[in-house]
Every structure is written in C-alpha cells, then in structure tokens.
Amino acid sequence: MKSKLEVLEQTIATMSKEGMEYICITDIAKYKNTDRSDDLIRNWMRNRNTIEFLGIWEQLNNMNFNPVEFDGFKKEAGLNSFTLTPKQWIEKTNAIGIVSKAGRYGGTYAQKDIAFEFASWISVEFKLYLIKEFQRLKEQEFEQLGWDIRRNLAKVNYLIHTDAVKEYLIPEALSQQQVAYVYANEADLLNVALFGVTARQWRDDNPNISGNMRDHANVHQLVCLANMESMNAHFIQQGMGQSERIVKLNKLAIHQMQVLVAANKATASLIQS
To answer: pLDDT tens digit string along 98-116?
Structure first.
C-alpha cells in the first residue's frame, strides 16, 4: 500500500503489519489541531462509545484480546478521572487494532475501520474524503496487482514452453574480493548475492536499458529474491555481520536457483510428452 494519503491538504501516513492495513490517526488529528494531536487521541479514547467500539473490534479480530481489562476500562470510561493512552490500551488488553510507534516518524496508527471511526469524531467531512482517497488508492493497487500477475504468468508460460532455463541464470559463487567488500546498502547486498553486481554496476553496464536490474529479472529470480529478503532480515536479527550474511545469501541463491531450474526442466518435459 502507498505510504501516504493526501486528504484535504493533510498528509496521512499508512502502514501494513501482519497483513493488516493501518492509518496514522496522529496525522488525522493534526487536521483538527496540529499542536494537540496526542491530546485529541486521548480525549477520544476517554469516551465510553470509543472504548466499546475498540473492544468489540478486538473481540471480533483478536484471539489474544484481554476482555477482563477491557471491562475495567469500560466501567471507568466517561468519568472525569478516567484517562487512557493508546500505549496503555495496547499493553493492558493485548490490542492489535491500535499501534503506537516511537521515534521521529512515529505516531499512533489504527486499523482502517478504527481510523475511519476516529476521523468521524474529528470531522465527518474529513472522514468521507479519507474513505474516498483510501478506496481510490486500493483500486490502483488492485489494478497494479492484476498487471503484475498477468506479467509474471506470461513469463512463467514463456519459460515452460522453452527447452529450459539457461544455466547462466544460476548465480556464481562470490570471489573473496566480493565477500570482503562491505556493502552499506542492504539492497545491494542482495543484488550482489543473486546477480553478482550492484545496482550502480548494472546501470553502468546497461546505460541504454530503462529501469533497473530487478525490473528485468525473471520470475524465478524474483521468487528467490523475496526468499533472500526474508532470510537477510532473520540474519540481521541474529546479529550477523554483512560479510558473513553475503556468503550465506549467495549460497542460498545458488541452491534455490538450481532447484527452480530443475523444476522448470521437469515441467517442460511433462508438457512436451
């Protein structure tokens, strides 16, 4: 999903987490008052109707939701002494509908249905424009997804009807010089492990070709690249250095492409027979 929405001249950040789409309600609150966005969110969460809405949403979508803590909040909601922050709601109830992100680009994010509810509390007009913009972008995504699927299916179909994928598609083992070089850009770490060159090196070697090397990768390489991205994230979490990761990723790329080549040859043989 696109990272930003533009609604009534207000920029709204979005994010995806575990297949769920979130909209930044801090940005929505800024439409009402730039300096008091956090206060507006807290005031909204003091409301009994808000607590009931959040609780029902969690019960429908979250198996790990804590209903006991929810009942406690619901009883206190509306009292002058009652206060509740997004962080407290998340920690006490194990909520997933609201996400609190720290840092310079942080803020409070809410699952889209919850975000629309908050937007309605801020401004009915803003909510309607937000929904319209969100739907427009989703339609664009589906159109792009459909095009990508058709493109990849065409590539697969082409490969199946040729003799076999050429052996040169399988990456070569990296030299000691390549391994020793520390790539500051993680994307280039993957590029070298799979394609043997950095994005800049590919561009210098192909000045007359539009796009980048990933745009010209075949479906097997794209599948392999997606797997490598996941493994690289896992290696980073383990505290593994770049020099060690690039060796492991290169070996992974070689193995996976060999498997894909063999599978493609077998499929082509079945079709011919």
So the answer is: 999 877 768 999 999 999 9
Say what the pLDDT of residue 188 is. Answer: 82
The answer to whether the beta carbons of residues 49 and 89 sit under 8 Å apart is: no
Collapse the DSSP code of 108 into the 3-class scheme (helix H, G, I; strand E, B; otherwise coil) and give the result: strand
Strand order of the β-sheet with 10-17 is 4-7, 10-17, 20-24, 107-111, 98-101
Q: What's the confidence (pLDDT) of residue 219?
A: 78
Nearest to 18 by CA among 94, 87, 99, 88: 99
H/E element holding 140?
Answer: helix 124-160
In our burial notation (b when 16+ CB lie closer than 10 A, e otherwise), range 186-220 reads eebbbbbbbbbbbbeebeeeeeeeeeebbeebbbb
Distances in Å between the Cα of 80 and the Cα atoms of 41, 43, 83, 93, 155 are 16, 11, 8, 22, 63
- pLDDT average, residue stretch 218-227: 82
Instruction: Return mean pLDDT, the chain.
Output: 81
Q: Which two tokens stand for residue 206?
A: 């192909």
Whether pTM > 0.70 for this model: the answer is no
Quick check: 97 pLDDT over 90? Answer: yes
DSSP codes of every residue in 7-64: ETTEEEEEEEETTEEEEEHHHHHHHH-GGGHHHHHHHHHHSHHHHHHHHHHHHHH-TT
C-alpha 68, offset from chain centre:
32
